[in-house]
Every structure is written in structure tokens, then in C-alpha cells.
Amino acid sequence: MSFIDLKGILQPLGALKQLGKKPHTIQFPAESIEASDNYRGLHFNDLDDCIGCGNCSTICPNEAIDMIDLLNIKEKKGDSSLRPRIDNGRCCWCALCVDVCPTGSLSLTKDYIFVTEDPNDFLWTPGIDNKDAADKISYTSDVSTSISMYDRVPMRELEGKERVKSFAEVVLGYSEEEARAEAQRCISCGLCVEVCPENMHIPEYINAIAQAKDKDALRIIYDNNPLPEMCGKVCTRLCEDVCAMQVRGDAVAIRWLKRYATETAPTVELIKEIVDPQIEEPNGFSVGIVGAGPAGLTAAYYLALKGYDVTIYEAQAHAGGMIMYGIPKYRFPLESIDKQIQYMESIGVKIKYNTKVGKDISFKEIYNNNDAVFVGIGLQIPWNIGIKNEDSPGVIPAIDYLTIINSDGKFDVGKKVAVIGGGNVAIDGARVAARYGADVTILYRRRVEDMPADWEEIEGAEHEGVKIVPQAIPTKIIRNKEGKVKGVEYVMAKMVAQDGGRPRPVAIEGSETIYECDTVIGAIGQQADFDWLPENYKEKVIIERGKIQVNNLRQTGDNKIFAGGDAVKFGNSDAISAIADGFNAVKGIDKLLLNK
């Protein structure tokens, strides 16, 4: 029996109803049609706003985006100089690349027609190959709807009025849940690695934390930083200044995540079990190190791992250098320092405490008894304030005051204190004095935004009741009848613009003011002490403007002597730069002694 398929016969006739209707397609290029306002067409990139993070390339499901180096792009801080190039033959215009762009530089336009006979023409760099598309943008990312997480997980800390009553640690640290959430914000662009003096493996250890692999995170960190808990608490975190997320939101809390990873190993035994340091067989060479600060400790740790016989000569009773004696314990507790030092000693690093080079042992002896020497001293001598009567009783350099307090000594600052300076040392001195019940005022010659201190430290001081008087230039110390400090005179300043530099303060005539106080703490900088180094060694170990001159491997003019830390010409005067110096010096010593 056969059936007639009426539907199959009649269905084609249905197309007849389209006769006379306007066609949906257009005759290109004779005709054009305006796209809707939110049409997802071809890409455009604002090359100035783009930082070359590569997030767009990473997320593209069609592998339609690669990153190319544009040599004509002016390199700036936190910019890789790479820019996305689109393969329009692969692109499906899903706009995921736009949605995850941390700076908002990448967008889509109303342009959707591109005709060419050359397949290579479909590869183009948005913002260069279509400069005229800037006014045709139709789809951009929005912070509130982005799939990226711009807001940082807040760090818990003691409340200001409560914490100023003691030296209890202010920052409380992330919980496991908080650390996981914060780590998941990282897009692994690696811009942070480039600016970190030590080039730490930041994306790798943050990703390990995000994946609940805390032990892996700790191992990754110790690969090139033997003082991670210190960095996790007091690092200057240059890495966060270039974090892609901070362009439109908050930088990933790189420092706090490092702290979290290190605090998952609360004992020396656990650190050793997790890190599992591989110590090479003794190689027969010995290295003497002057100073147990971050630079000296770093050099000692990695040299010991490589089989060197290492001895550090430390003038103080405790290792750590300025991180021990210059940083208040509410920022970096003693137990955190001890744990890291004890771990280093457990792998073979020897430290001779209370041994001042030039007094208890000569530099010549260290030089002659070792195959190489590393000098890792800091900046111990404070600069004078440079005003009249600063030699009066009651005037003390901030670094001396902090050393006394950190050594469990006592110094009565009285009821009112003036601190002169605007760096982290000034802030530390002010906050410590406040913890002894003093009413503290900081006098700073420039604006608050010009202060070199970490903004978190400035905020912390203000929360603890410390007052800041900006644009105040101290002129002299006022004495009482006994010759002791009675106050400090200062003049107000106006800021005068300078070509190519920050505005400079100029005293306002007739604005003299006296701040009555019991103590004046000076904090305008420090310099190194080289009196311990004999003159015949200074002929090769060149010291210019108070800094030892070294090459990239931290080698001085004497091939056998290496140097690092605040007293050398490289980097910033901070702990992470000192760590980098120690790490690089190990490479130099390896090259000198083992031809590696």
C-alpha cells in the first residue's frame, strides 16, 4: 500500500509566501546596515590602558588570541609591553576576552564586516590595525558584572584603640577559607614576578593555595626565599603595585597569601618536613658572612644547601638585622623570626653571635680563613636631623629608639612626642611611642601623599591616634632651663611645582610654630658603617656615596668579596631586595669557586 506524502509535496510551496517581502540579507558593499548598540563585532583595544597581562589569550576557547611584543609601546611599570593579536578566522565573538579584561581596555565594536582575499589579513592587532574604531565601541566589560573578582578579601586586624595598648600582633592573618577565596582572584599574568626583586614564583604558589595545596605552596616559596614569613608580614610588596587587578579594583593580597602559606607550618620540624631541603655533599669550600640580616641569612641558607661550610659573624645577640631590631614586634613577632633562624641553623648554617667584625674578630682573619666572603650589613647609623640643638637630652634617632625597645630595654618618651620624618621608620617610631601612652605627632615637610611610608602603616598610625602635620619643616629644638627638650619649632611650607619632579616645600615666612613635647624622635634616614673594613681592602671594595659598588652577581672589585643588602648600590632599601642580593651572590660565589 502506498501513501502520498502531501506534506512533502506542499511544504516547498510555502516559500512562495516570501515573494514580495524585503530580503534579510544585504548586497555588500553596495548596501550597509547599522548594527544594534550592543552588537558584538570586531575587537578594539586601547593600547594605553592595556597592560599586556594576557588574560584574554588565556581564556579564549578558540585559541584566537596570542600576545605579541610591540616594540613601539612605551614600557611602563606593570606593563609587559605585549598586546593581544586576534585571529578573526577563529573568533566566535563570545566576548569572554572582554569580560575578563582587568583594565577594561579590550572591547568589541559595531564593525562586523571585513572582506579580504588574503587569509593573513584576518590576523590583526586591535588598536593598531583599526585605530578608527575607537568611536564604534558597542560592548565593554563592567566591574560590577565582570566574572573577575575585583574586591579583596578583607584582612582581619585588631581595632586601633585596642591594639595601641600592647605589642600584640596587629594583623590576624587569613583563615583557610579566606585564603582560598583571595587566591582564586589571581589571573596568573605574572606581572608581579617581573617587579619582585627576588622574582618569586608568585602565580605558582598562589594557584597552589587556591587548589588547597598548601604544602606545595610552601615548597614553591622556599625555592628562592628562605625568609618567607618575614616577607609575608612586612614586605614592601612591590608586586601588588603592578597587580593587574588593582587597575580597576584591589590588588591580589600577595603578601598576606605568602603569610598564610608559611603559617601552615608553625614549627621548624614541620617546615623541614614539608620543604625537604636537599643538602648537597660538602664541596670543601668555606664562606664567611658579615652580618645576619636578610641578605646574609639568604646567602648562608642557599650556600649551605649547595655544600658550602658557612659561618655568619653577627655583632648583636640575635640574628635578623634590621628586621629584628628595627621592626616593631606588633608587626613581626619575635617567634616568627626565631622559627626561620632555627630552621636555617638546622640545615647547617653557623652563626657566631655577639661577634663584632673589627673588634671581636678582624676582617682580615675572615678573609684569609675563607674561600669567599659575603658582606651583608645594613644601615645602622642615623642621619642627623640638621637643626639647632638636636644634641639636647630628649632627642633620639628612631632607629636607636626601636633597637632599645626591641632589645627589651626602656626609654621614657614622656607624655608628648614629636617624630620628624615620613618613612616607615618614622611611622614605626611613632606607633611604638603611642604604645607607651604618649601623645604623638609626626612633622613631615611634604604632603601626606608624598610620604614614602607604606599607606597601610600611615593608616594604622592614624587609627592608633597618631597625628600627622604635613608641610611642616622643623627648624630647631626648644630647650628648658635644664637644657632638655621642651619642644620643637617648625615653619609651615607651601608646595612649589618642579619640572619633572615632585613639588618641593618652601617655608612660609612668619609661620613659625612651636610644638611642646618631651621627646623628639628623628627619622630622616640611615647610612652604613664601614669603619670595620681596613683601608687596604677599600682600595678594591669601592664605596661611593655610602654604597658598596657591585656587579650583577654582587661581586665587588675584590673578586673574593661579595656584598648585598641596604649597603650596596642595587635595588631598594628593603628586606626583599636584600634577599635578592643574597640569592644572586650565591650564583656569583658558585661561579667563582665551582665554575658554575
Tell me about this structure.
- The protein is of the alpha/beta class.
- The chain has four domains: 116 residues, Alpha-Beta Plaits, CATH 3.30.70.3270; 115 residues, Alpha-helical ferredoxin (Fumarate Reductase Iron-sulfur Protein, Chain B, domain 2, Orthogonal Bundle); 163 residues, FAD/NAD(P)-binding domain (3-Layer(bba) Sandwich); 130 residues, FAD/NAD(P)-binding domain.
- Helix content is 28%, strand content 18%.
- It is built from 21 helices and 24 strands.
- The strands form seven sheets. It has a five-stranded parallel sheet, with helices on both faces. The chain has a five-stranded parallel sheet with strand order 12-20-13-14-15. Strands 16, 17, 18 and 19 form a four-stranded antiparallel sheet that branches.
- Write down the overall mean pLDDT: 92
State the name of the first-level CATH class of the largest domain.
Answer: Alpha Beta
The helix content is 25-40%
Terminal CA distance: 92 Å
CATH H-level name of the largest domain... which superfamily? Answer: FAD/NAD(P)-binding domain
Alpha plus pi helix count? 21
- Identify low-pLDDT runs: none
Number of strands: 24
Largest sheet: 5 strands, parallel
Structure class: alpha/beta
Report a brief summary of the structure.
With 596 residues, the protein is of the alpha/beta class. 28% of the residues lie in helices and 18% in strands.
Which secondary structure elements does this structure contain, and how are they paired or packed?
Elements: H1 6-10, E1 43-45, H2 55-59, E2 65-69, E3 82-87, H3 96-99, E4 106-109, E5 123-124, E6 137-139, H4 160-163, H5 176-183, H6 191-195, H7 202-210, H8 214-222, H9 228-234, H10 238-241, H11 254-263, H12 268-275, E7 286-290, H13 294-305, E8 309-313, H14 322-325, H15 334-346, E9 350-352, H16 363-369, E10 372-375, E11 381-382, E12 395-397, H17 398-406, E13 416-420, H18 424-435, E14 439-444, H19 455-463, E15 467-470, E16 472-479, E17 485-498, E18 501-507, E19 513-516, E20 519-522, E21 526-527, H20 535-538, E22 543-544, E23 547-548, E24 561-563, H21 575-594
Parallel strand pairs: 7-8, 7-10, 8-9, 10-24, 12-20, 13-14, 13-20, 14-15
Antiparallel strand pairs: 1-4, 2-3, 3-5, 4-6, 11-21, 16-17, 17-18, 17-19, 22-23
Helix pairs in contact: 5-7, 5-11, 7-8, 7-11, 9-11, 12-15, 13-21, 17-18, 18-19
